[in-house]
Design a protein that fits this description.
The complex is a heterodimer of chains A (about 120) and B (about 110).
Chain A (H helix, E strand, L loop, with lengths): L2 E3 L4 E5 L4 E3 L2 E3 L5 E7 L5 E7 L5 E3 L5 E5 L4 E6 L8 E8 L11 E2 L3 E6 L1
Parallel strand pairs in A: 2-12
Antiparallel strand pairs in A: 1-4, 3-9, 5-6, 5-10, 7-8, 8-9, 10-11, 10-12
Chain B lengths: L3 E4 L2 E4 L5 E7 L6 E6 L5 E7 L6 E2 L10 E5 L2 E6 L8 E8 L5 E3 L3 E5 L1
Parallel strand pairs in B: 2-11
Antiparallel strand pairs in B: 1-3, 3-8, 4-5, 4-9, 5-6, 7-8, 9-10, 9-11
Classes of the chains: A mainly beta (about 120), B mainly beta (about 110).
Chain lengths: ~120, ~110
């Protein structure tokens, strides 16, 4: 069975400071890893993904994430946080290609990010 | 990326009634999904909506409670039947676009009184 852990319910950071949102995963095969953001009263927006290739992936709004196979982690980072980055962030994982039988995207519990001016 | 719209965006319903949520994608997609996000919680997959056949439900979800239709490659509906306050959630439609990425609609916020 696959699982995702986001160990922090909330992350507080001052505007302009680096932002890190932690994610660790457990899968039986090769992981397909995703980050989504949910702004208040909005749906989920795709930020970035790791399928294969470079361990450092860059996504929307200046976010990036580093895939670390040995630590089974996929932490989300932004060098300089903005107040507008305040939102709920979800890490998600699959262990199969999307069209494979039994495919399922599993979400972490979410981390609320609060960026203070 | 795919653009997904949902109707209604929110609703307040009485217990015992049913609500049908519509999901429209701006392009043909092979796979569509329905998720539930209960208050303050993460997303849980309800079912995969299969075009031309019955939906595939996850453990804990049944067709009688959450009937799903998928008449074509751009449209799906989810019905929440015989609602109770425990059904109060955000219901999100999702689809596979390109390169293994799932995209999500804006969600339907349901409150059952």
């Amino acid at each position: 069975a696959q699982s995702v852990a986001q160990p922090e319910d909330q992350v507080n950071v001052a505007e302009g400071n680096p932002l890190t949102v932690k994610c660790t995963y457990s899968v039986s095969g090769n992981p397909y890893l995703f980050w989504y953001v949910q702004y208040p009263n909005r749906g989920l927006q795709f930020l970035l993904k790791y399928i294969t290739g470079d361990n450092l992936v860059k996504g929307s709004y200046g976010f990036e994430a580093e895939f670390n196979k040995s630590q089974t982690s996929f932490h989300l980072k932004k060098p300089s946080a903005l107040v507008s980055d305040s939102a709920l962030y979800f890490c998600a994982v699959r262990d199969k290609p999307l069209r494979a039988a039994g495919n399922k995207l599993t979400f972490g519990g979410g981390t609320r990010v609060l960026v203070k001016p | 990326s795919a653009v997904i719209s949902q109707k209604p965006s929110r609703d307040i319903c009485q217990r015992g009634t049913s609500l049908t949520i519509q999901c429209q994608v701006d392009s043909q997609v092979t796979m569509m999904f329905w998720y539930r996000q209960q208050p303050g919680q993460s997303l849980t997959l309800i079912a995969t909506a299969n075009q031309g056949s019955e939906a595939t439900y996850e453990s804990g979800f049944v067709i009688d409670k959450f009937p799903i239709s998928r008449p074509n490659l751009t449209f799906s509906t989810l019905t929440v039947s015989n609602m109770s306050p425990e059904d109060s959630s955000i219901y999100l439609c999702s689809c596979l676009a390109v390169q293994e990425t799932q995209y999500f609609g804006p969600g339907t916020r349901l409150l059952v009184l």
